[in-house]
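Limitations

Structures in this collection are predictions, not experimental determinations, and the ligand pose is part of the prediction. Treat each record accordingly. The example that follows, with iron/sulfur cluster as the small molecule, is included so readers can see exactly what is and is not provided: the inputs are given verbatim, and the output is the predicted complex.
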Amino acid sequence: MKIKKITKVTFGALVAGTVIFGIGHFQTQAQQEQPAQQAAATATVTECFESREGYTARSRVENVVPEYGYPNIKCSQTTGGVLWWGDPYDDTIPMGDMPDIDDITKGDYLTEDAVIKPREPQLNYFNMDPDKHCVMCHDGKAVPFPKDKKPRMITMHQDIVEDSMELMHGEGAIWCLDCHNATNRNTLIDHRGKEISFNQPQKLCGKCHGVEYRHWRMGIHGKRIGSWIAGGKKRWWVCTECHNPHTVQTNRFQPLKPEPAPALPKGMKNADHESVHAPSAAGHGEATPAAMH
Amino acid sequence: MPAEEKKEVKGTTISRRQFFKQAGAVSAAVAAAAASSVIAPEEAEARTTFAEFFQNNYRLMTDEEKKEAIARLEQRHSEEYGKKVTVDGSPAMKDVLFGYALNIQKCIGCRRCVYACVKENNQSRHDTEIQWIRVIRMEKGNFTVDDMDKGYPNSPNESFGIQVGGNAYKNAGVALEGQHYYQPERVPEKDAFYFPVQCMQCEKPPCVKVCPVRTTYRDPDGIVVIDYNWCIGCRMCMGACPYWARRFNWGDPNLPAEEMNPKTHYLGNRPRMRGVVEKCTFCLQRTRKGRYPACVEVCPVGARKFGNLLDPESEVRKILDRKKVFRLKADMNTYPKFFYFID
Ligand code: SF4
Ligand code: SF4
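Predicted complex:
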C-alpha cells in the first residue's frame, strides 16, 4: 500500500512536470466515427471457400455464438476466402471409424473429439436428386456399369477431368475406376475392393500416400481447427478439402488469389524498389529512379 | 472542474501518454482530483479513466486490483463499441510452454493469416494500418555469367561488383532480400517462396530487456506480453527486436465497432490506445482457453502448427522430432519459440 502511494505521488510530480511541456493536443470523437460509416457502405461478402476453391463453399450465418455475437465464419472481402471461424465445429459430424495402423495414434478417432465436415452433400453434380446423387444416372441401366478399369475416352464430366485419357494421377498408372466404385458411384473403392465413403477419402488416399497419411494422422500434415490441446476436439480437413485428386499432378494445391498487400508506409509512392527483382527482367539495370534513393 | 475541460475528458479515452499530452490543459484539475479523491458522482466515465491512469503495472497488481482494472475496461469498451465486451485476465496455464512451427515449404503466400490476425486481435484498420504478421516473398535466384561482377546500377562504380558476387539488385543464388508488397494474380508463383514473420515469443527476449518501465515481460507460458496501460511509447522494444515484430500506434486506432472482436484479454487483443506498442501474443485470449491461434486456423494449406512444447504428444513436438527445423536468426541468442520447418 505504501509503495503504491509513493507511485501515485511520483506520478503527480511527473504530471506537474509535464505541464511545462504540455502540448494540449485533443482528439475528437468525430474522427473515430468516420471509418465505421465507410465500412458499412460497402456490401459485405458472405459466401466464401475454405481451402479448395470451388469445392469447399461456406455461407456466413449470423450469431452462431450468441455469447459474443460471432457468425460461423467471416469472409475475405477481396478474395472470397474464409478468414476466421467463429464456431470451428459448425456443421460437422464425427470422423467415423479409422483403422488402427499401429502408428502413435492407434486409430483413435471414433470419439466426437475428431470431427469433419461431411463431403457427401457435395455430390450434387447436376443437382438432380438430393438422395440418389450419382446413382441417379449411374444405375447400371441408364449408364451401364463399365466392365473393366481400362482407360477410355469419356464424353461426360469434362469439367472435372478434361481428357480422361490424359488423367495423370499416379503418373498414368491408375485411372478413374481405381478410386471410384464402378457399381456404386456414390462411394469410393480401394484396391482391395473395399467401399469407402466420400466423407473419409483419407482411407483411400492413404493406401498409396503412406507418409502423408501417417503425418496427417499425427497432426503434422494438413489442417485442423478447434482445440490445440493434444486429444482436444478438432475439426479435421480431409485430403480432398485441400487437394483436387484429378489435377493434383499439376498443382498440389490449386493457386488462389492472395489477400491485399499491406499499405505502403507514409510517403512511399510505390513498391518499385522491390519489384526490380522480377525474374523476367533481363540483366540487372532495371532499377527505377524510385529505387535509387 | 470548468465545464469545457470536463467535456474534453469525457469525450476521450485517456492513456498515460495522452494524459501527459493533455496535461497542459487539465493537469491542475487532475492533480487536485487525484490528491483529494473528490470526483463528482456523475462523472463515472471520467472517474474510470482517472482510475485507469492511476492503476499499477499489471504484473504488480493484487488480484483485487486486477479485477477492478478489468471491470473498468469492460465497462468502458462496452460503452465505446456498443456491445458487450469481455476482458479476460486468465493467467498462464500450468505446465504449458507455447510453441509454434511453420512449414515454409507449404506456405503459398496468400496472406490469409495476416488478415485472420487482424480480425481476431482488434488492430487499427487504417491510418495507421497495423498488421502483426508480415509475409515476405523471396525469389529463387540463379547463377548466370551475365550477372557476374555487376555493381549497383547507375552508380559511379557501375562496372564493379559489390563483393558478394552477383549484384545488389540481382543476387546470385537465393535472393534474401524479401518483397512485402507482392501482388500477383495467383499464389503460389513459380520461382518464389514465402516467409511469414511475426513475434517469435523469444525465451530470451531483447525487447523485454530494454523496456524502461518493464511493461513488457515474459509470462510463464512463454508469451511475451505488454500491459498497454503502463506502456510509455518510448519504442525501445521496437528497436531491440531483431524480428521487426512490434508495431506502434501513431494515432488513435481506427477500429470500427462492427468489426471489433468483443472477446478480449487484458494482455492480448483488448483495444489499444494511441502511443502504445503492440505485437503478436499467439492469440493468448484464445490459446489460454484451449483454442488454436487465428492464423493457425486460417492457413488454407495447413502450414501453421501450434501446441505445448512441454507435451511430447503435441503437434509442435512431433514436428521438432521428425522434421527439419530452424529458427530465424538463431545466432542472436534470442531462443525463439517459433520454428520454421520443411518436410
Ligand atoms: S520476436 Fe521481438 S517482440 Fe517478440 S519476444 Fe522476440 S524480441 Fe520480443
Ligand atoms: S495463411 Fe498459410 S499459406 Fe497463407 S501466407 Fe499465411 S502461412 Fe502462408
